[in-house]
Amino acid sequence: MGVDEPPGDTARDRETRPRHETPWDHEPRPAPEPPPGMPMRSKVIAGAVFGVLYAAYMTAQGHLVPGALGGILAAVVLVMVLGRLEERRRQRHRERYR
User: Where are the domains of the chain?
Assistant: First the structure.
């Protein structure tokens, strides 16, 4: 150990010490916000269009009541599925940046 070297700071210590900053030496970056999803209004419009098209097709086949009920149910299911897809996308985004 030389006179001008502080105790514990030998050439061997300098060789084994990492030259770059380790990931745990700094604070983690905050997770970015997830990209905006489909607004509820757009989901409802998509559901309504799908329901009307389904009802019109079934009515053209001669099934008025089943077509109307099926169109309503199809619209509701589509809105629910789109909402669940968006929820799952947000969850994956949170897990990725956790």
Answer: 37-96
Are 47 and 75 contacting, i.e. CB atoms less than 8 angstroms apart? yes
Q: What is the pLDDT of residues 81-97, one digit of tens each?
A: 999 999 999 999 888 87
Identity of residue 43 = K
Per-residue pLDDT tens over the stretch 42-61: 999 999 999 999 999 999 99
Distance CA 33, CA 35 (A): 6
Q: Which two tokens stand for residue 77?
A: 């299911």
Q: Residue 63: phi, psi to the nearest 5?
A: -115, 85
3 state SS of 2: coil
Q: What angle do CA 94, 97, 98 make, to 5 degrees?
A: 80
Q: Give the whole-angstrom CA distance, residue 23 versus residue 45.
A: 46
Q: How far is CA 24 from the centre of its chain?
A: 26
